[in-house]
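Lecture notes, unit on binding sites. The following record was shown on slide 14. It pairs a sequence with 2-deoxy-2-amino glucitol-6-phosphate.
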Amino acid sequence: MCGIIAYSGKDNAVPYLVDGIKNLEYRGYDSFGCALIDKGNIIVRKDVGDTASVLNKYRIIKNFSNQGMFHTRWATHGGISKENAHPLTDCKGEIAVVHNGIIENWQDIKVSLDGHRFVSQTDTEVIPHLLEERLSRGDSMERALRAVFNEIKGASSFVVMRKGDSNMYAVKHGAPLVLGLGKNGFFVSSDIPSFLKYTNKVVFLHDGDLVVFNQNSVRIKNLLNKKDKHDVHTVDISPGSLDKGKYRHFMLKEINEQSKLLKSFENYDFSKVRLAASKIRSAHRVYLVGAGSSFHAAAYGALILRKSGIDAIAIQGQDIQNFSRLFERNDVFVIISQSGETADLIRSLQLMKGFRIGIINTEGSYLSRNVDLVINMMAGIEKAVAATKSFMNTMVLLEMINSYANGSSESAMHDLKLLNLNLYSLFVPSVLSAIKRIAEELKDDGDIFYVGRDYGYLISLEGALKMKEVSYIHAEAFDLSTIKHGPLALISQGSKVIAAVTEPVEETFYGLEEIKARGGHIIGISPSNSTVFDEFVHVPEAGVFSFVPLVIVAQLISYYTAVKRGINPDKPRNLAKSVTVN
Ligand code: AGP
């Protein structure tokens, strides 16, 4: 869950790396560090804080170096400190390493490196010392890297620079790493957006790949002796999508982009969706798996499939192993992941015996390359840590899969068009002011409750997660049908309760009345007003797509609550967008 970008080429690496690392900050922003060459020596600069502040502090932009590597850290082992920031070096400061992943057996390795001087509490630091040890015994760098690769356990990709060596070395071991082929040099990075301005020619690396690159050439060798091909892909992503444009934050930009994305489904090629639906129809059972927001989408997908009479169940990524003994060959798995990198899912992929359909946003990601059928989320690059448009597109795709599976695709398309006609009504000033007013009321609360029934409950789960992650307010979702079995005890005078009402049915209002009777202050998001609501945000009804406006309003409430609390919602504390460690 760190970001790596490295460059070696005829140009000065520094401007490329400075620019590139900004597009990797979503992967971690506890601390930043870099290694560059200066008068034949490796210089390492690093510190706690975001990239921009460390870059300024050490005036890094003033350097000239034909090779270099930058790193943004999301701490796993060792606190957030200057010593623990990457790069980590060997005893002499001649080998520098940046790393993404976890070395599970680092403590054993550290013990074996008797006599080496360790200065950090990280797992990463064993790599430069292991290399130092091997090189001191006369191994070539490539031989030493092979030995390190074989010794370390766990997903760990890393890049190495060595004093006096014109080559740089990158090893892909679980965590993502891609190679970019520039005009005058080569990039190795955790993700394509970091170098997209300079090249869209990309090689997706395989596990075990060792990339040896310098100013003039690049070579890939597989340390697992696999013979997989390394095709050059031309990536079709506009570099403009990497900027915030007129928006203050990526999260707001991405929320707003949803109208356009929803419209584009009217001309979407649904052939893969149809294929997925036919596999699902003939499945013994359908398991939908995901983590966080992707799990919420999975839960929604499972509910709509069950309502179509299909045996479907949603499982959290980390729980897949507990279900694995139930899996059968004719089961179908729907694996949902924006990043395509989530460790829980990757770890359990081999356990999923049947046909595996991936709904994935990131081209070339591990999951997208290792499932039987990939349905692209088509959400474009999502930079804010909080999933918004990727969640929405997944929900739309699931609804379409379900509609093809139950023979109602024409009516679903009709609902989608109706939704697109009416969606503008959410972005008008009166609705936005109502949302901002609600955010103002919520911003000082300690606890917020999201409630709903049936679909509304699943939307509430997502609403509460969004609120937690960007505003840091404790928000919890409850199913209105079950609040009497316990959660009602939490309600007292003035408790803020957001009700996500998909269908204004009687049962929903019984539950809300019970909350109101205990002093709850109810904010209704609903297609129709009710006397039970203390506040009300009107959302258009759109048949099977009625969840869309509710989700957008929930996203906006979270966004504005975060902003009013002075939090940058794009980079919530403690979180990273791609969760590549277990
Ligand atoms: C969503 O807002 C979160 N950032 C998080 O829950 C996310 O959905 C989860 O980590 C799964 O990620 P994925 O879709 O990339 O697999």
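Take-home: The mean pLDDT is 94.
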